[in-house]
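User: Quick sanity check before I run a bigger batch. Here is a single chain. Can you write out its predicted 3D structure?
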Amino acid sequence: MENATKALLIGAGMLFAVVVVSMVLYTYNQITTYYNSKQDEQEVKQQAEFNIEFSAYDRDDVTGFELVSLINKIINYNRQNAVDSNLGFENNDKNWTKMSISFEITDDEITEPKPTNDGETGQLFSTSIYNSEHSRTETELEDIIRRMNLLEKEYGSGVLSKLVSNRTNMLHYYGSGDANRDKNLKTTKEVLGKDVQNLPTEKEVIEYGQYTEFKRADFECVNRSYDDNTGRLILLEYRQK
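Assistant: Done. Predicted structure follows.
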């Protein structure tokens, strides 16, 4: 009788243990499912927010000025998410995928080289097609924007715009400065309305003029691509209208 009682107690203990373990496993699975669903929900939300930010440029009436903003956004996004322990960067976004932009300029006035009166050549865009999927292009785009920002900071966009509009009929950009050779030639003071000692070179004025025309141009988005795994937008392609 005593052995039977012990056996019953052992069996009850084992049954209780099985029930407890089952309840623990069930609770764990429920908690895991809950947090996984929350994580999935968060990832979907992040994907939507990411796509909304960049898909705002997925239009057929994007200006070059907007493209400059988009290029800066993409460059900053790619750099902030770069994984390089030597530089102290850490990629905390497991869904990160490099984003790219491609655009084609069809207006030759923006891309063609223009000689200056001192033998140099002004040409801001060295080609008509830029695709940041190629490693050097992103650096080239960044350099173009940086150089133009420095010009604006040093001379002011107002001064630069006036010089661009009057470049071909200004004494400042003719070596002799001989007003008698063409009665239509103007002095820098006449163009700017004041004496300005620090002036950009003719090459810089030509390049700033091409940058201005680029920002005024209209582009249409002709293609876009999404990452198969994350659903995030990874490429926008444009062509000048």
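The chain has two domains: 1-55, 61-240.

User: Great, the batch can go ahead then.
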